[in-house]
Write a structure and sequence with these properties.
Largest sheet: none
Oligomer: single chain
Order of helices and strands: HHHHHHHHHHHHHHHHHH
Number of strands: 0
Number of helices: 18
Helix content: over 70%
Structural class: mainly alpha
Shape: globular
CATH class of the largest domain: Mainly Alpha
Radius of gyration: 25 Å
CATH topology of the largest domain: ABC transporter involved in vitamin B12 uptake, BtuC
Distance between the termini: 34 Å
CATH architecture of the largest domain: Orthogonal Bundle
């Protein structure tokens, strides 16, 4: 009896040591984490004429990172995060236009402080509630700030904004060129500092407490954790980071309008996180870059209906990658490693009726592609007969693309479900 108790104690001790070792080692940088930064540096040399787009992509990465801090780690769902982005953007704009203060780093700090202050004040009241109430209150915050700016258009410029802002050279030395090379390095440097701070926060005991609040807020209350104080703290930090992103937006574009408070901005950054994956840090990188690239290319293909492509990708992500693109990559890597060890790939089952399913999905996809193609080209083909007459051009291309996408999605789904069923039977 004593021997069994001793073995249980040893097992418990070993489990505690492994858990402690895991928590201690989580904060260490891994070689794979250098990849996004190497790609960002490489983009500076490979695409020197696309630095303006690169600036906006990095700013949106920072904005998404600020939302991930409260959504992915603390479980705070916000549809009004653009409020703090807008406050930071207008802080810089008003400092230049009204006070003639154009030094970039100090105005960046001022934007962070003011956004953080507003985040603290609003968060103190908003975060006393849960669920849908929080969502509506955050949305109302952004709308109220936008309407306040519209009401005092003599200060904010209204919806005409504050154009023609002049930013002083960075460090008083580096002036901004037409193609945005200095701005790109400036934004990348600020993003690196912000990311390091966020990474230290989420891997600290404070970050672990936030995760506990996200998973089970009642249990955290039961163990005596100051839940409200911690939520307000992380909300304030997130607001300050969003303010920095907004300040960089104004500095790199040299103008600001009240559209920075729009619901579109809050929804867009939410979509970015869903695509990339919440609670993973680098999900903000993947989601923001993928969204910005899709927006850029799809808007060129169809200026009116480009959002359809974003919506389609979002639906596919929710259905087949609920943990985001980064989570999907992690899941595929994990399953591939397990199958490589267990030889589960040999148990893949492909039934005859699967071909019938694929044929049906191809027909459905072709119909959807045809309809989408007609809608996207409605400006050039007012009548269905004109659109059909363009075969084998636009209509055929959209039809085949829809059939191909639908067939590929169903083929992947059938392969995974068949393999899972085979593994269940084998076990």
């Amino acid at each position: 009896m004593a021997a069994s108790e001793k073995s249980r104690e040893l097992a418990a001790t070993g489990a505690r040591e492994r858990a402690a070792g895991y928590l201690v080692g989580r904060h260490r940088f891994r070689p794979a984490e250098a990849l996004p930064w190497l790609l960002a540096i490489a983009a500076f040399f490979l695409f020197p004429d696309r630095m303006t787009f690169g600036n906006q992509a990095l700013i949106m990465v920072m904005f998404a990172l600020s939302l991930d801090l409260i959504l992915g780690y603390a479980g705070i769902v916000s549809l009004g995060h653009a409020a703090f982005f807008g406050v930071g953007a207008y802080t810089v704009g008003l400092l230049i236009a009204r006070l003639d203060w154009s030094e970039p780093l100090s105005s960046l700090l001022a934007a962070a402080m003011l956004s953080g202050l507003i985040g603290f004040v609003t968060g103190w009241f908003i975060l006393r509630y849960r669920g849908l109430t929080v969502i509506m209150l955050t949305l109302a915050t952004a709308i109220m700030l936008q309407e306040a700016g519209n009401l005092r258009s003599d200060i904010s410029g209204g919806y005409d904004g504050l154009p023609g802002l002049v930013i002083s050279p960075l460090f008083g030395i580096f002036d901004y060129d037409l193609y945005g090379h200095v701005n790109y390095l400036y934004v990348l440097g600020v993003l690196a500092v912000i990311f390091y701070m966020v990474r230290r926060i989420v891997y600290s005991p404070f970050g672990q407490a936030l995760t506990g609040i996200r998973e089970n807020v009642r249990r955290m209350h039961a163990i005596g954790s100051p839940v409200h104080r911690r939520l307000v703290t992380v909300y304030t930090i997130s607001a300050a980071i969003a303010g920095v992103a907004g300040a960089l937006f104004t500095q790199t574009n040299a103008y600001v309008t009240l559209t920075v408070f729009d619901f579109d901005n809050s929804a867009k950054v939410m979509v970015m996180l869903i695509l990339g994956g919440t609670g993973r840090l680098y999900g903000a990188f993947i989601g923001a870059v993928v969204y910005m690239m899709l927006e850029d290319h799809l808007s060129k293909l169809s200026p009116t209906f480009w959002q359809f492509g974003i919506g389609l990708l979002l639906i596919l992500a929710v259905l087949f990658a609920p943990r985001g693109l980064l989570g999907l990559v992690e899941e595929i890597s994990r399953k591939s490693w397990r199958r490589g060890r267990a030889g589960a790939a040999r148990r893949l089952i492909w039934k005859g009726e699967h071909w019938t399913v694929l044929a049906g999905s191809a027909v459905d996809g072709a119909a959807i592609g045809f309809i989408v193609g007609f809608a996207a080209n409605f400006g050039q083909a007012h009548l269905l007969s004109e659109y059909i007459a363009s075969l084998p051009g636009r209509a055929l291309a959209f039809t085949c693309f829809g059939a191909l996408v639908a067939t590929a999605i169903n083929a992947i789904y059938l392969a995974f479900t068949s393999r899972a069923a085979a593994e269940d039977r084998g076990s």
